[in-house]
């Protein structure tokens, strides 16, 4: 039996943050001291910290690129709803209430607090930080990135500027780290026009648009692999 | 930040077995010496070692019950098909060829060889062994269990006796460990009659039928939780 060089260690945490308990998880190469560059990963709508898109994101980044990955359940999702995310309509209601009241603000606070705490670990420390968030993970991700200078590169996409959406537009105009943006030409959730508008709004000097045929959840694996490489290379600089 | 007591360590392996390379993965509590009782988990049709049903099975059993869990890709699935399982029809063809030629025989050999190797690890050793396999994981699972006295308890279900199916029926009649059998009353894959016929055929003196309303992939989480407890309790004896 041959064992692969890199195993994956997964640690669950709960962060007390502004009176809220935020459940999260950290993945890292097992049995190695680090420090590891860290990718904060934002999950999509009705998903949770364990169901990122792609599902294999933590394993792929840890095993193939020796990065650490961390994710939290955003409000109304995962452990933060009574039935632990098994009922999509309930998730939708809880989410809508939160988003109308707070927009990206509270989630950005939580991601920032998570990053503060993770940087106290010797395995992370002051290693470089990236962000990965598609679909809803882009909607709140731009709110986080707009005011988070520690993030040096991001993968965004499957999302567009919402119709009135002044906040998202204003946040996007403040995102200036290198961005790899994934767009699906037949996306039934984010229209092409809105997606293009969001991409154009990003202030990043280095931004890459990767556009593929196909629907919202049909991103080709080759695109994910290029996005991994983009992120890993910027985090290594 | 509060860290949960049990982290999860994931190790990938490749087993050379009768000239075949069998990719697998082992999950265990991180930073603990063990030995841990082991659950071998068989994935379903078009799924793979990382997409067990439920998806959270390894984490649930490791974190909540301090068990180790191992899974392999069966022929035609996961890493064992050219496009790594992304194309369901291709998976179907490769699987059908294999199943017609070998039935459960080769997979049972591979599971046995995997168990042999895992028992050499100090973290596993001679601790108790269980099996979890639903749907297709039951079809080949009974072939494995029929000739594997090391398994002391199993969770099976979402599957029935196939129409001619002499091999599956013969295997089932040799399964005598305690079994927790999951059945869905509106299962569109395994009919109620066939499912009942398979459950009846099992030779186990201790067998529990858990029947719920709902379709194939709509097993209530409470049923999974009871199945975990069933398995964990028998492995503890």
Description:
By secondary structure, the first copy, chain A, is α/β, with parallel strands linked by helices. Chain A has one domain: Alpha/Beta hydrolase fold, catalytic domain (Rossmann fold, 3-Layer(aba) Sandwich), CATH 3.40.50.1820. The first copy, chain A, contains 7 helices and 9 strands. In chain A, strands 2-3-5-4-6-7-8-9 form an 8-stranded mixed beta sheet, with helices on both faces. In chain A, helix 4 (136-146) crosses helix 5 (166-172). The longest helix of chain A is centred in the C-terminal third of the chain and has 16 residues, at 221-236. The model of chain A has no long low-confidence stretch (mean pLDDT 94). At the A-B interface, strand 1 and strand 2 of A face strand 1 and strand 2 of B. Strand 1 of chain A pairs antiparallel with strand 2 of chain B.
Oligomer: homodimer
Q: Low-confidence parts of chain A lasting 5 or more residues at pLDDT below 50?
A: none
CATH topology of chain A: Rossmann fold
As laid out across the biggest beta sheet of chain A, the strand order is: 2-3-5-4-6-7-8-9
* Ends apart, CA distance between termini of chain A: 36 Å
Largest interface: A-B, 25 and 25 residues
CATH architecture grouping of chain A: 3-Layer(aba) Sandwich
Residues in helices of chain A, as a percent range: 25-40%
Radius of gyration of chain A: 17 Å
Number of helices of chain A: 7
Secondary structure elements and pairings:
Two copies of one chain form a homodimer.
Chain A: E1 2-3, E2 8-17, E3 20-29, E4 38-42, H1 57-65, E5 68-72, H2 88-102, H3 105-118, E6 129-134, H4 136-146, E7 151-157, H5 166-172, E8 179-184, H6 192-201, E9 207-212, H7 221-236
Parallel strand pairs in A: 4-5, 4-6, 6-7, 7-8, 8-9
Antiparallel strand pairs in A: 2-3, 3-5
Helix pairs in contact in A: 3-4, 4-5
């Amino acid at each position: 039996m041959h064992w692969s060089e890199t195993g994956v260690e997964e640690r669950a945490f709960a962060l007390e943050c502004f009176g809220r308990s935020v459940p999260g998880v950290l993945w890292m190469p097992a049995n190695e001291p680090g420090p590891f560059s860290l990718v904060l990963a934002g999950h999509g709508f009705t998903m949770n910290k364990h169901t990122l898109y792609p599902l294999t994101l933590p394993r792929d980044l840890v095993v193939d690129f020796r990065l650490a990955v961390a994710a939290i359940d955003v409000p109304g999702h995962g452990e933060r709803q009574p039935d632990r995310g098994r009922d999509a309509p309930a998730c939708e209601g809880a989410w809508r209430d939160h988003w109308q009241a707070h927009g990206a603000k509270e989630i950005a606070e939580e991601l920032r607090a998570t990053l503060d705490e993770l940087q106290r670990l010797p395995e992370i420390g002051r290693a470089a930080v990236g962000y990965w968030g598609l679909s809803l993970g882009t909607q709140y991700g731009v709110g986080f990135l707009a005011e988070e200078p520690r993030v040096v590169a991001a993968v965004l996409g499957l999302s567009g500027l919402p119709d009135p959406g002044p906040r998202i537009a204003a946040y996007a105009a403040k995102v200036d780290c290198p961005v790899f943006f994934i767009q699906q030409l037949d996306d039934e959730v984010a229209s092409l026009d809105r997606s293009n508008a969001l991409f154009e709004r990003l202030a990043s000097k280095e931004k890459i648009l990767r556009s593929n045929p196909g629907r919202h959840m049909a991103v080709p694996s080759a695109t994910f692999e290029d996005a991994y490489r983009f992120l890993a290379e910027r985090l290594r600089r």
